[in-house]
Amino acid sequence: MNLLFLVPCIPKINGVGWEQRAFHFLKSYSQLAEIDLICINFGKTPLDEVEYLHLTNICRSVQLFRVDQAIDTSSFVQNVQRIFTLSPLFSTVVPSQMFAESLKKQIIEADFIHASRLEIFCFSPRETWSRTLLDLDECHVTTLRRSRRFNSSMSLGERLQSLIRCLDTFRIAYYQKYVIKRVCAAFICSEVERNRVSSSSQLQVLPNAVKSLSHFSNKVDSQQKRLLFIGNLSTSPNIDAVLYFVTYIWKKVLEQCSTCRLMIVGRNPCDQILALAGFEGIEIHANVANLDEVYQNATIAIVPLRFGAGTKLKLLEAFGYGVPVVTTSIGSEGIDVQNDKHLLVADSPEAFAEACLCLLSEPETCQRLALAAWQYTRKNHDPTAIQQMITTRFSDLASMAATQTPELPQKKLRLFN
Questions:
Q1: For 65, phi and psi rounded to 5 degrees?
Q2: Among 237, 253, 257, which Cα is nearest to 352's?
Q3: Which of 124, 187, 227, 366 could cross-link to 206 by cystine, CB 3.0-4.6 Å?
Q4: ∠ CA(116), CA(118), CA(122), 5° rounding?
């Protein structure tokens, strides 16, 4: 079989959430099909030679496009027109001729198409939807709707953009439900996200996978007090989480534990994050390639998210490394864990600071929570098991397609309609 894999990021085993999820799909499909990879690098992620060779070993062909190579710039008039269409804004972008021609050639040759997220799915012609596997990952409107509560101090231009995005959420919500009923299969990361999007049997839960230590070895250093936040430091949920913690919680922790340090680690930190470096025990570590040492030096992982969607890889990753976690309800959403059994959940600044101080002063509690969380991750988010789930599902779909239509017809394709 030939499978065209469309993705809006560079699939990476050690990347951020959507990059890792895409990689697990890619790895799974490669067991059964020849893969042609087409990637638009919306995340503007650098790709080193080793990572590129890894992709070429998995895929028959690899094509990587920058955003400006794949999408033509719209004029002011075109942008205004897009606002008043019935389609979501991301589905009305104009592809470049180079990208369109490359995509059309690969689509014609593909028996199946996998599209990661709606941003890339919109490039698939309607004629191909019946042989397309769509990974939504998460509900695409939840983050947009939740973030509006925390954007009170905006300029007039920012308020107008926020209003446009708000109106777009209604179009996206309808679009999600519409396409799910028409694709070959659709996937999402948790039951919570599935309930938000659609009750259609076409939409199936496929959990996020995360690597974990083969043996639990949580070692608490009573002399070392370090809080750790890890995430993409250029995305609004993570930027808000860091600034919220530093502004409202960090000083409360320092009042009771003056030797504590805060490590903020992640990709492409924005200027607001970089400005925190050296401020009251705060360390900024940008674009760290290997996180093993970072987790080994952490006493607690914090996930103070106030908005967002999906299951948070940063939380599961900490579980896998045996590091105890303090989070908000948003941070642990969609993951079947319990407060005070696997982690501590706190939604107010006072409660969050108290939870951090509790773990800093109680090594036994750290050990108990970290062990339960590590066991949960090993059981429910193991990469090998989840890749097997993907492979089995794809094999079943391929068998059904072969029975119903032994040879897929090559239709005259009309792209981007």
A1: -120, 135
A2: 253
A3: 187
A4: 105
Amino acid at position 169, single letter: T
Tell me what pLDDT residue 45 has. 83
Amino acid, single-letter form, for residue 413: L
340: alpha, beta or left, given left = phi > 0 and alpha = psi -120 to 50? left
Nearby residues of 178 by Cβ (< 8 Å), 6 or more positions away: none
- CA dihedral sign of residues 299, 265, 312, 134: negative
DSSP at 82: H
User: Any idea what DSSP says for residue 126?
Assistant: G
Q: What is the pTM of this model?
A: 0.89
Rounded to an integer, what is the distance from CA 118 to the centroid of its chain?
13
Q: Comparing C-alpha atoms, which of 328, 230, 235 is closest to residue 288?
A: 230
Q: Are 325 and 318 in contact (CB under 8 A)?
A: yes
pLDDT tens digits, one per residue of 60-84: 999 999 999 999 988 888 888 888 8
pLDDT in tens, 269-297: 999 999 999 888 999 999 998 899 999 99
Tokens (6 digits) for 298:
């952490």
User: CA-to-CA distance for 267 and 279, rounded, in angstroms?
Assistant: 20
Question: DSSP labels for 188-217?
Answer: ES-HHHHHHH---TTEEE-PPP----SS--
Q: Which residues of 102-137 are buried (b: 16+ CB within 10 A; e: fewer)?
A: bbeebbeebbbbbbbbbbbbbbbbeebbebbbbbbb
The pair phi, psi for residue 328, each rounded to 5°, is: -90, 170
Residue 66, burial from CB neighbour count under 10 angstroms (0-12, 13-18, 19+): exposed
For the stretch 362-410, pLDDT in tens is 999 999 999 999 999 999 999 999 999 999 999 999 988 877 754 444 4
Strand order in the sheet with 34-40: 61-65, 34-40, 2-7, 112-116, 132-137, 185-188, 203-205
Q: Buried b / exposed e across 159-186, counting CB within 10 Å, b at 16+?
A: eeeeeebeebbebbbebbeebbeebbbb
pLDDT tens digits for 161-173? 778 888 889 999 9
Characterize the bridge pairing of strands 94-95 and 71-72. Answer: antiparallel
Mean pLDDT value across the chain? 90
Q: Is 348 helix (H, G, I), strand (E, B) or coil?
A: coil
Three-state secondary-structure class, residue 40: strand
